[in-house]
Specification:
- The protein is an alpha/beta fold.
- The protein has a domain of 126 residues: Rossmann fold (3-Layer(aba) Sandwich).
- The protein is built from 7 helices and 10 strands.
- Helix 2 runs parallel beside helix 4.
- It is globular and about 60 Å long.
- It binds adenosine-5'-triphosphate and magnesium ion.
């Protein structure tokens, strides 16, 4: 059984079909990069995976079960920009994730639990290279640092799936390279299943284990909304990385 199964998924808004008949099976630990022309529905697909929207038709299964109707801790997300809280310091931005789920019943964490949450957040921030910036506000960070913060914020909840929507699109090429390194390290360490949208084809090919190309196969010039995009190519990448992943999956399933 696949970790994630997308079965004949369609998404339409009014009379505009955005995605049509998507079928996809992804093993745990795979790193999928998603490319396609602007407006073809990549972000829509991520929203479906996140559970922020429900498909008009078809089903997405995670571990054999239908996705929860709202986002939960099993899936983390990082957007191109603005996914951190501007009024909170770096450490609080990340520790908050651990504090919030409990706060509905108990209020914010106190004492030892709060201390633990903050220590845990500080360790993760160290790992993403922000150990020196715990007391800063997001506006005091560079774009790359803000995205490191957003990644830490997503990872603190220990999601099984990480959704990245052009997370490095606004960064300089040099900084992007560093972010690729960081992301690959985190991926290897955590064995997360990653879906990452990118407009940068070389990024799409060099990161990850699998490249998914979204494209509209059918086009009716008189009815632009009549047809949606499909996954037209599903290309295996980085054979070494795939082999390592397959070996690990084999070892854990024994
Ligand atoms: N909530 C919505 N209501 C109506 N239409 C929507 C909604 N969300 C997306 N769309 C439409 O769906 C299409 C796909 O949008 P989406 O943002 O998924 O594309 P994308 O591939 O992520 O594009 P980009 O590469 O520019 O980010 C667009 O035509 C958009 O206008
Ligand atoms: Mg998009």
């Amino acid at each position: 059984m696949s970790f994630i199964s997308v079965n004949n998924v369609w998404q339409r808004y009014g009379d505009q079909v955005v995605l049509e008949g998507l079928n996809l099976h992804v093993n745990e630990g795979e790193f999928c990069t998603l490319v396609g022309t602007s407006g073809c529905g990549k972000s829509t697909f991520l929203r479906l995976l996140l559970g922020q929207e429900t498909a008009s038709k078809g089903q997405i299964l995670l571990d054999g079960k239908a996705l929860a109707a709202e986002p939960d801790a099993s899936r983390g997300v990082v957007f191109q920009r603005y996914s951190v809280f501007p009024h909170l310091r770096v450490l609080d931005n990340v520790a908050l994730g651990l504090e919030l789920p409990r706060s509905r019943l108990l209020g914010r964490l106190f004492g030892k639990a709060k201390q633990d949450a903050r220590e845990h957040a500080a360790i993760l921030l160290q790992k993403v290279g922000l150990g020196h910036a715990l007391d800063k506000y997001p506006a005091q960070l560079s774009g790359g640092m803000q995205q490191r913060l957003a990644i830490a914020q997503a990872l603190i909840m220990k999601p099984r799936v990480l959704l990245l929507d052009e997370p490095f699109g606004a960064l300089d090429p040099g900084i992007r390279k560093d972010m690729h390194q960081l992301l690959l390290e985190l991926w290897r360490e955590t064995r997360l299943t990653v879906f990452m949208v990118t407009h940068d084809l070389s990024e799409g090919f060099s990161l990850g284990t699998r490249l998914l190309v979204f494209d509209k196969v059918r086009v009716d010039p008189h009815a632009p909304g009549a047809y949606g995009a499909r996954i037209t190519y599903d290309i295996p990448l980085n054979s070494e990385r795939r082999k390592a992943l397959a070996a690990e999956l084999g070892a854990t399933s024994k």
